[in-house]
Amino acid sequence: MQKSKIKTKYIIYALVIIALCIFGSRIPGFFTFTNIMNVTRQASTIAICALAMTLVLIIKGIDLGTGGVMAFCAMVSAFMMLRGINIFIAMITGALVGLVIGIINGLLAAKINIPPFVATYVTGQITLGLALVVGKGSSISGLPASYSAIGNNLVIGIPINTWIMVALLVITTVILKYTRMGKHIYALGGSESVIKTEGINPDVIKVFAFALCGLYSAIAGILLSAQMATVHPTQGSTYQLDAVAASLIGGVSMLGGEGAAWMSVLGALIIGFLRNSLDMLAIDPFYQNLVVGAAIILVVGASVYSRNKALKTAKVF
Question: In this predicted structure, what is the pLDDT of residue 11?
Answer without folding.
Answer: 67
